[in-house]
Specification:
The protein is of the alpha+beta class. The chain contains 14 helices and four strands. It starts with 20 loop residues before the first helix and ends in an 8-residue tail after the last helix.
Length: 381
């Protein structure tokens, strides 16, 4: 008989990490006297690069009321430094919602009184919870408290996952379930392609086109257990980040990576940037010779930074790593030609491709398929 454990208690094999953090927070909160702080202490806290507990308390006090604008500016700079001008989402991977841990807060608890009519489709690593929820007509899906053990994804940008896997799966979910019809994922992919090719991120462009090509190939690739092979082959296209000092000899101001340039491109410069794909359609003498643009390695984009630069250094300020992107007109032309070919094929065959996924959905979500897929014996009747 299966043993049921209490998910809210430590088990004998678990490491127990005692911490006084809760007590320390409680003590600090009780000792907080908001009327004792002055404007000078608030200004000192605003100048500080890393707030102490006392400096943070000063920012929470009534004395900080006249400095709300300065506080907002500082908060904005910190946000842009760590996250850029974007919203970061993440998707955990669950094979099914039959988890036996029975955590009371979790939507995947096998004891939850919900109707289960479909298994998930295979080879989904991003968007798996969305696909499974839609297939089972869930009204909402919740992972209460997951922030306890998941580290933030802001410093974990992975082009293989974000550009290839997310977009491929979005197209598949849309085709299989008929949801999100008001969202044009192809237009989103086209926008990313234009941005990345102007940033000289040729590998990223390849991954975006891989997503569309694999979707257009139809659902047959999902019927064999080749997920690891697919992930490894596309992971080779991730830019190999190395310690910045090994890639670039000059000093790098990592604090400016997520800050837009104060003087932005003029309308004429912006036009040239877009029409020429950042100078890649022009002779090399148009470029800024011996100029290396320092840009963010992930989503954050400021065309002013890389405008007509001879080469681009994609930097992660989180771990001080970088990847040097160099202009390659031959690679540029190949990608543009491939882009035209892939998009033309998608446009001509979209309806037939979507019908193939709709017809395959029932099979891919069935118990019999999954038993064969996982080499499991047939269920006893």
């Amino acid at each position: 008989m299966r043993t049921i454990y209490d998910p809210m208690t430590y088990q004998p094999h678990m490491q127990q990490l005692d911490s006084q953090m809760f007590e320390e927070v409680q003590t600090a909160m009780q000792a907080f006297e908001q009327t004792t702080y002055t404007a000078k202490e608030v200004q000192a806290a605003l100048r500080s690069t890393a707030c102490t507990v006392q400096e943070f308390a000063a920012l929470l006090s009534p004395a900080a009321q006249p400095f709300l604008e300065q506080m907002a500016e500082k908060a904005k700079r910190e946000r842009e430094k760590h996250f850029g001008n974007c919203v970061q989402l993440f998707t955990p991977l669950y094979i099914s919602n039959y988890c036996e841990n029975e955590c009371v807060y979790c939507g995947f608890n096998c004891k939850n009184k919900i109707h289960r009519s479909h298994l998930p489709v295979p080879l989904f690593i991003r968007g798996d919870d969305v696909e499974f929820s839609v297939a089972n007509h869930a009204e909402f899906l919740t992972l209460n408290g997951i922030c306890i053990w998941h580290k933030g994804f802001a410093n974990k940008f992975n082009a293989n996952l974000e550009l290839y896997m997310v977009h491929r799966n979005s197209l598949i979910i849309q085709a299989m379930s008929g949801i999100c019809k008001d969202i044009d994922f192809i237009k989103r992919i086209q926008g990313f392609f234009e941005t990345e090719i102007r940033r000289l991120a040729y590998n990223n462009c390849d991954l975006l086109l891989d997503a569309v090509e694999e979707f257009c190939a139809g659902p047959d690739f999902m019927k064999t257990p080749q997920g690891e092979q697919i992930m490894k082959s596309h992971a080779t296209k991730n830019e190999k980040m190395r310690p910045a000092a090994m890639v670039y000899s000059k000093p790098i101001d990592f604090d400016r990576v997520y800050r837009k340039e104060e003087k932005q491109l003029t309308p004429t410069q912006k036009w040239w940037y877009e029409v020429t794909d950042n100078g890649q359609k022009l002779p090399d003498w148009f470029l800024k010779k011996d100029h290396t643009a320092i840009i963010a390695y992930d989503w954050f984009d400021d065309p002013t930074k890389e405008y007509f630069a001879e080469q681009v250094l994609a930097v992660s300020p989180f771990d001080h790593t970088a990847y040097l992107r160099k202009r390659d007109k031959q690679r540029y032309q190949q990608l543009k030609q491939r882009y035209q070919r892939v998009m033309r094929y998608y446009k001509q065959n979209r309806k037939q491709i979507e019908q193939m996924y709709q017809q395959a959905a029932g099979t891919l979500q069935s118990e019999s398929f999954w038993r064969e897929y996982l080499h499991m014996p047939e269920a006893k009747k």
